[in-house]
Amino acid sequence: MLKKKKVSLLAMMMAVTVVFTGCSFSGDSKDAGSTTGTGDTATTGAKELKLYVETEIKDMNQWLASDDVSFTVLNNVGEGLYRLDPKNEPQPAMAEKVDVSADKLKYTFKLRDDAKWSDGTPVTAADFKFAWLREIDPKTGTNGYSFIMTDYIVGAAEYAEGGSADKVGIEATDDKTLTISLKQPTPYFLRLTTLAPYFPMKEEFVKAKGDSYALTPQNMLFNGPYTMTSVDAASGATLEKNAGYWDAANVKVDKVDLKVIKEKSTALNAYKAGQLDRVLLASSDVSAAKSEPGFATGINFKTTYLQFNTKADGVSNVNIRKALELGFDSKLLADQVLNNGSKGATGLIPDEMSAVEGKSFREMQGDLIKPDAAQAKAFWDQGVKELGKAPKITMLVADTSETKDVATFIQSELKKSLGIDLVLDTKTSKARGQLMDNSKYQMAITAWGADYDDAMTYLDLWTNHTPYRGNYENPKYDALIMNAKKETDENKRINMMLEAEKMLVTEDAVVAPIYFGGYSFLLNSKVEGLDYHPYGNPVDFKYANVK
Amino acid sequence: MKRYIGVRLIYLVLTLFIITTATFFLMKGLPGTPFDEEKLQQLPTEQRQKIYASYGLDKPVVTQYVNYLGNIVKGDLGTSFFYTGQKVTDIISGRIGPSALIGLQAVLLGLAIGLILGIIAAYRHNTGWDYATMIIAVLGVSVPNFVLAALMQYYMGLKWGWFPVAFWESYSSSILPSVALSVGVVALIARFVRTEMLEVLEQEYITTAKAKGLGFIRIMFQHVIRNSLISVITVLGPIVVNLLTGSLVIENIFGIPGIGSLFVDSIKMNDYSTIMGITIFYSAFYVLVMLVVDLLYGLVDPRIRFASGKE
Does A261 sit within 8 Å of B166, measured CB to CB? Predict the structure, then answer.
């Protein structure tokens, strides 16, 4: 009796095991040769790039995707009118050329004859019009990126509010001609067209797939340098060279294996074991890795800064704000605490962001912030005198490890320079955002990543007068931004923005820039031309090669 | 017996209902929404409202709750907010496989080794065998499995190259994570078996069995071990649920697309439908396993077999 039961129990367990072992391993679907490791790459002549991303691959639907990882994949399987080159300059892609009217308000794009979808049909101007209108329509474009169209294209904002699609300045004159009307001169418009929300898509394909559109590679259509062979949010994606791509002759890598690895140490071990070609380093690993071949650093267009609430107790005083801004040395922070390739901020607009005539915005502006304990103390004393008493300052901080390190650093620096005890209020990122929305904060550590390569992506934020932007309201600032948006002369436009940054950072001290985001990585010496862009679509596999 | 299971199943539904309700309202109390608020900031209020409305988030919480319950009854757990457009049932079924395989292997391995160690320790009570086993047990309980996992990854994966460093590519990918997870189970089971066996060995029926002249093997297997298993089954229930439903840390370290990380991520992202889906899934699994545990008691020990309503 007992024996029988034992046997049946065992049988049950075995049955369960069989069920579970039936689950698929991502390696199963691959070609049989891949198990033999890197050796076969040379024999078959296929060039493979082995990379990873740090969070799940969320969305392959261009109207829903809003994160860097999704953009990383989309940018390589899709393509807009223009594509960024290794120097971050936009180059003709789906478009062959563009004619810009004298008033810089009308862009006429001529599409390439050999621009094709992966199903063999040509990419047409109508595909652009369909995709862009879908992005603008708040019912379908829910990624929160529609503003990068509604802010610029004539009639787009009205359409988003329920107006007519016919009045939007996107015109498919014929199959290969696309005419765009802009509200104001936008020198970086071609850069915008490189972003995933500006990619084309074929209407009949989307309609045919319905709700299952872009959920699997079979339900996707590609026009970029690669096509997707598999994708799984948690384990990764595999891309293969798109033979029908117009510039296929210049795409050297045949296959990209993109894994999802959340642990930095796991990625490092995998890199050392030869399973990855590039690895991002945790700051604790930087010192040890510095001497290794393939070590390098890069920057992102992302500035972390202190947002002052100009309507809150204490920090409503501009001298108090200036004191807090100058009271810490962010160079020390970047070099000694963060140690990850980040740089101490000398202004709000990040390093390397373009301005005019090949010069960067930072080169033209120079250093706006020079930490100075004595000067900071003088501002503080002046502020205290004006307020009648020394204010108690609380800093709102998100509970990520990097932000907490930054907060502790600022706390100790301000103790030294101003002799004040800064209180840290640590909240989840979401709760922090909500407190800021409700104006319930004095100052908060926050960051902004650029959507495009122009200072306007930052400076425009402070014209909405919301609590999140410190309730900042200065008609002079608003006028500068408004005029800069209308200005057709590049030099004049940049000058207005230079002045606006100065006003925001030093004169009114509404924000105190802390650091420019950066990263350190190791790269397999066999890989070259793997270009990471500091904004927008993070990386192009198109120009990469494996020796 | 049938009636007993029937009653238990009704309780199961009731339990699930309470858990669903509590989770739903607690979850709505989380700050924020499933969307990228920083980006939404850019949109005019009207457009933002439209986005909320398209997900039914503009309605009162109670209405959302009633709608949700209605969908569950129809077997629809909804679509994810984070993985836009994907069905929660699809996401869960895609992720449970790796977690369950690793968890099951860890439980089986842990159970086997734990039983052997426990039996040796009890049988060789107060000898070097006993002490050695208990040192292993204490170490197993006190060394966190992520430390062990990281060490195993570094040595067995990278340095010696015995197993894949990470990823989910072939069966061998599942070995290191399973072993890392099993160590805690080994330690726990070994300690339980040892304590319980020592107690059983002193029972009078064992003396009786010995007096009857039963052989060593028969005494050990039919009397001692069988009676010691009761406590093991008690702890095994929660362990099975715990391990089969995934471990965030182990999955992250070995880069495994499992359900443990999905659950934690969904909470971080305020992915309402996924949070609810996994909670319901976990709870149902837990309650079912507990039912199985209770039934197993009866198998192992006739004294706690359930009377069919004639008590």
Answer: yes
Q: Identify the residue among B30, B83, B151, B240 best suited for mutation to test binding to A, counting A beta carbons within 10 A and taking the highest.
A: B83
Q: Which of B37, B84, B108 minimises the CB distance to A433?
A: B37
Compute the distance between CA of residue A73 and CA of residue A70 in angstroms, rounded to an integer: 5
Segment B42-55 mean pLDDT: 70
Inter-CA distances, A227 with A63, A71, B308, Å: 19, 14, 63
Of B37, B171, B253, the CB nearest to A263: B253
ipTM: 0.77
Q: pLDDT tens-digit profile of B277-294?
A: 998 888 888 888 888 888
A41, containing H or E segment: helix A39-44
> What is the 8-class DSSP label of residue B21?
H
- Give the number of other CB atoms < 10 A from CB of residue A345: 28
In a domain, B58, yes or no: no
Beta bridge partners, B87, equal: B79
CATH label of the domain that carries residue B128: 1.10.3720.10
Q: Report d(CA A330, CA A410) in Å as an integer.
A: 9
What is the band of B40 on the pLDDT scale with cuts at 50, 70, 90? Answer: low
- Separation CA A145–CA B42 (nearest Å): 9
Ranges of chain A whose pLDDT falls below 50: 1-10, 12-22, 28-43
Which DSSP symbol is given to B311?
Answer: -
Distance from CA of B105 to the nearest CA of A (A): 8
pLDDT at A22: 46
If you search the block for the tokens 């679907």, which residue do you land on?
A29
Query: Which residues of chain A are within 8 Å of residue B84 when distances are taken between CB atoms?
Result: 58-59, 61, 64, 142
Q: Is residue B75 part of a domain?
A: no
Residue type, position A31, single letter: D
Residue B253: its chain A contacts at CB < 8 A?
263, 265-266
Residue B105 lies in domain: 97-259
Q: What is the mean pLDDT of chain B?
A: 84
Counted across chains A and B, CB pairs separated by less than 8 A come out at 159
Q: Establish if B3 belongs to a structural domain.
A: no
The domain total for chain B is: 1
Cβ-defined contact of A263 to B32 (cutoff 8 Å)? no
Q: Is A323 exposed, middle or buried (0-12, 13-18, 19+ CB in 10 A)?
A: buried
Say if B114 falls within a structural domain: yes
